[in-house]
Each structure stands twice: as structure tokens, then as C-alpha cells.
């Protein structure tokens, strides 16, 4: 799932330009590493304009997480649909696409919670994201009494693969392990 390109950001209205710049910086470099002054400078807005739209960095962080959630979930559902003929293995195919993207830096919600663990709103955003991710994964499974349990286990395995691919800098081992786990976790 690509982050917004700098060349496209310049053409956006101020609020969207700030948010797109924050999205790129927060995801690629980290929330704490990306200060407000840098977001302002790179988005090309004044401080007054910035604070009119986002009175605090925390409000910008929450707007970023909301936007990231919407964009990522749309991408994820589309990727699952592209690989739907593979059944539950579509999960590994979709994640392999994401891991292969040049700007892959792991899960924005796991990263955000790791950077700001004491913020209840960030934790809530992460929980909502993971719940919807699990629901999307459930759509790959047959309906029945095992669907929710299997979706939960697959979501946990997917999170492990995401973290491993990020840490190792290569998706190969993470995808291989996930591909081996999927049949085990979905066996009746």
C-alpha cells in the first residue's frame, strides 16, 4: 500500500496537504521522529494554517491513523478479493504484495502503539483497525462456528508475519511461515 507521493501532495488543499505529508512522514520515519515544524515545512503551509486544522500533534496523529485505516483497509479488501480464488491462502498473497512495496514499514498501528503506548486514543484506533482486519480475514473462511476463531488465529499469524517482515527487512521467511500456518489454522 503506497504512501502519498510528494509531487501529488503539493496540489491538495491545505488540510489534505498537511495530512498527506504527515501520513508520509509518520509512516516512513515514525510519529515521534516527525515533528510538527517538519510537517509544516514539507506541506508548505503556515503555522497558523496548520493549527487551524490541527490544534495539536495528537489530533494530527489521530487523523493520520483514521486515514491510514481507511486507505489500508480498502487496499487490503481489494487485495483479498484479487486473490479470493486461493481461499484463506489469499491472506498470504495479499500480504506478500504489501511486503514487496518499496515503502513497506510494517503496520502503522503496531508502530504507532509502540511509539505512543500510553495514549488511549491511539490504542483504540489500533484495536478498531485490528478488529476490521480480522473481519476482512473472516470473509475468506466458510461461515460456521469455527469462522471467528479461525479468523482470530489467522489475524494473529498475519500480525506476526508483518512484524517479522519489518524486522528482517525481507518478507521471504515471514510469507513462507504464514503459508505453512494457514492450512494448520484453518483445519477443522
Instruction: Report low-confidence residues grouped into runs of 5 or more.
Output: none
CATH architecture: Orthogonal Bundle
Question: What's the helix count?
Answer: 10
Proportion of residues in β-strands: under 5%
State the order of secondary-structure elements, H for helix, E for strand: HHHHHHHHHH
Alpha-carbon distance between the two ends: 32 Å
Class by alpha and beta content: mainly alpha
Total beta strand runs? 0
Query: What is the domain total for the residues?
Result: 1
Please state the average pLDDT score. 94
Q: Choose one word for the global shape.
A: elongated
Biggest sheet architecture: none
Helical percentage: over 70%
Name the CATH class: Mainly Alpha
Protein name: TetR family transcriptional regulator
DNA-binding region: 35-54
Organism: Chromobacterium amazonense
Domain HTH tetR-type: 12-72
Amino acid at each position: 500500500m503506497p504512501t502519498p507521493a510528494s509531487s501529488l501532495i503539493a496540489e491538495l488543499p491545505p488540510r489534505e496537504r498537511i495530512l498527506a505529508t504527515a501520513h508520509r512522514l509518520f509512516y516512513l520515519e515514525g510519529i515521534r521522529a516527525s515533528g510538527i515544524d517538519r510537517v509544516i515545512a514539507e506541506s508548505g503551509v503556515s503555522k497558523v494554517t496548520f493549527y487551524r486544522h490541527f490544534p495539536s500533534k495528537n489530533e494530527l496523529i489521530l487523523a493520520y491513523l483514521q486515514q491510514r485505516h481507511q486507505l489500508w483497509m480498502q487496499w487490503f479488501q481489494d487485495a483479498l478479493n484479487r486473490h479470493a480464488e486461493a481461499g484463506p491462502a489469499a491472506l498470504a498473497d495479499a500480504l506478500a504484495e504489501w511486503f514487496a512495496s518499496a515503502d513497506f514499514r510494517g503496520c502503522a498501528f503496531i508502530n504507532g502503539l509502540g511509539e505512543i503506548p500510553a495514549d488511549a486514543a491511539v490504542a483504540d484506533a489500533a484495536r478498531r483497525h485490528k478488529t476490521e482486519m480480522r473481519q476482512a480475514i473472516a470473509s475468506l473462511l466458510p461461515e460456521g462456528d469455527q469462522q471467528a476463531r479461525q479468523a482470530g488465529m489467522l489475524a494473529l499469524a498475519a500480525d506476526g508475519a508483518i512484524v517479522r517482515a519489518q524486522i528482517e527487512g525481507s518478507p521471504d521467511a515471514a510469507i513462507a511461515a504464514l503459508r505453512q500456518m494457514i492450512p494448520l489454522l484453518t483445519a477443522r
